[in-house]
Design a protein that fits this description.
With 387 residues, this protein is of the alpha+beta class. The strands form two sheets. An eight-stranded mixed β-sheet has the order 4-3-2-6-5-1-11-12. Strands 7-8-9-10-13 form a five-stranded mixed β-sheet, with helices on one face. β2 and β3 form a beta hairpin. α9 packs across α11. The protein binds aspartic acid (ASP). The site of aspartic acid has 13 residues, from β8. Aspartic acid (ASP) binds next to β8.
């Protein structure tokens, strides 16, 4: 049965941090072995960091927060956290069971960034490994490169000892793909524009029929954290856009787009329509705006305004000219201030996923010394992306 983080766990974790903070500056004439507390530990994530447990006791943010407060490396903690979501077959937007591409093949993207080490690693269009975040970490730790893709990423993973599976589909993801395929037989839509339109319409119809959550057409987990020493790391991992053209890579594994960390400033990461985020490299933009003194919320809102201004293609706009998709950013700064922001206040997607009456509100989650919490994102625009 699921065991949520208890108040006692957190008081214990908080007490440990408090103890560190109260160590006197000099101990027997030597510098103390511990660093005085610079920040309140915090983990922030997309909403799936709050509700998937892979049949275990903890969610992503709970696991990561406890590991951080117990002194673990921040990136190790975040990756252990997102592994819960990657491995959970019920989350069909991340890792194992993520919705496949147009050929029915699950291709995964991830990147991670270690603030104090100023290193990062990523993989894209990786097939056969349930936890792409771990492979991204191995790219960071053991190579001189940032990003490995496709077959090369898989060969690298194999050489690092990762188990390679033939197929990461679950019965559910395969059934949904077959249904999508049945409805969009591309032979009938040789014109690429018509095919793209048909694909969107079919997916939206499948959401309306309750076959799948709209949240999972897109869908990703981004998770960032800061420890008491002020060390900041982040990770993003996804199966990307459902039914994508094989080889399509979104924003998630791209540094500056799906994730960016600067240990002196803060971290930002995204979920939602990757193509719109890529044009503005908005995670980098947000961190740079925070460097200039902006609060996480203001920096996030400025990035959303840029995305809105850059969205001029008719096919991507509603009748009123506003974007017809959603995008969220999860942001924290070196002071431990944080924000979740979204283009739209609501999404079809969120309904039911959180099991709340106002489940349409776009959310994010955090874990602090007071426990895990689901919070509502600050929106740029009211209503739903679909109008
Ligand atoms: N941003 C991801 C992508 O475009 C998907 C998502 O987060 O919804 O691949």
């Amino acid at each position: 049965m699921r065991r949520t983080i208890t108040r006692r766990d957190l008081v214990r974790a908080g007490a440990a941090v408090g103890l560190v903070a109260s160590v006197p500056g000099k101990l027997f004439g030597q510098a103390p072995a511990v660093v005085v507390r610079k920040a309140k530990p915090l983990v922030i994530a997309s909403p799936n960091g709050f509700y998937f447990t892979n049949g275990g006791a903890q969610t992503c943010v709970e696991k990561a927060f406890l590991m951080i407060t117990q002194g673990g490396d921040v990136l190790d903690a975040l990756i252990e956290g997102v592994n819960i979501v990657e491995l959970d077959p019920l989350e069909d937007a991340v890792g194992y069971g993520g919705l496949p591409n147009a050929d029915g093949v699950v291709q995964l993207d991830s990147c991670c960034m270690h603030g104090p080490k100023k290193r990062a690693g990523g993989v894209a269009a990786l097939e056969g490994v349930r936890t792409p975040s771990r492979v991204a970490r191995a790219v960071m730790d053991t190579t001189d490169h940032h990003l490995l893709v496709g077959k090369g990423a898989q060969t690298f993973a194999r050489s690092m000892g990762f188990a390679i599976e033939d197929d990461l589909n679950t019965e559910r993801s395969r059934t949904l793909w077959l249904e999508w395929k049945r409805r969009t037989d591309p032979l009938h839509y040789l014109d690429p524009a018509k095919r793209e339109l048909a694909s969107r319409q079919v997916s939206q119809q499948m959401v309306r029929e309750g076959l799948m959550s709209g949240r999972h057409l897109y869908g990703t987990i981004n998770c960032s954290g800061i420890n008491a020493k002020g060390q900041i790391c982040g990770v993003t991992t996804t199966s990307g856009l459902a039914w994508k053209i094989p080889g399509r890579v979104g924003d998630s594994p791209i540094l500056g787009a799906g994730l960016y960390v600067d240990n002196e400033v803060g971290a930002a990461g995204s979920t939602g329509r990757g193509e719109a985020n890529l044009y503005g490299l908005c995670s980098f933009l947000i961190v740079e705006l925070m460097r200039g003194g902006m609060h996480p919320k203001d920096a996030g809102m400025e990035a959303l305004r840029r995305i809105k201004a850059n969205t001029i293609e008719k096919r991507l706009c509603r009748a009123d000219g506003n974007p017809s998709f959603n995008l969220s950013f999860y942001i924290l700064n070196a002071k431990g201030e944080y924000a979740g922001v979204a283009l739209y206040r609501e999404d079809e997607d969120e309904r039911g996923a959180v099991g709340q009456k106002d489940g349409r509100l776009v959310r994010y989650c955090v874990c602090t010394e007071s426990g895990p919490q689901m919070l509502v994102c600050e929106p740029l625009l009211p209503g739903l992306p679909q109008g």
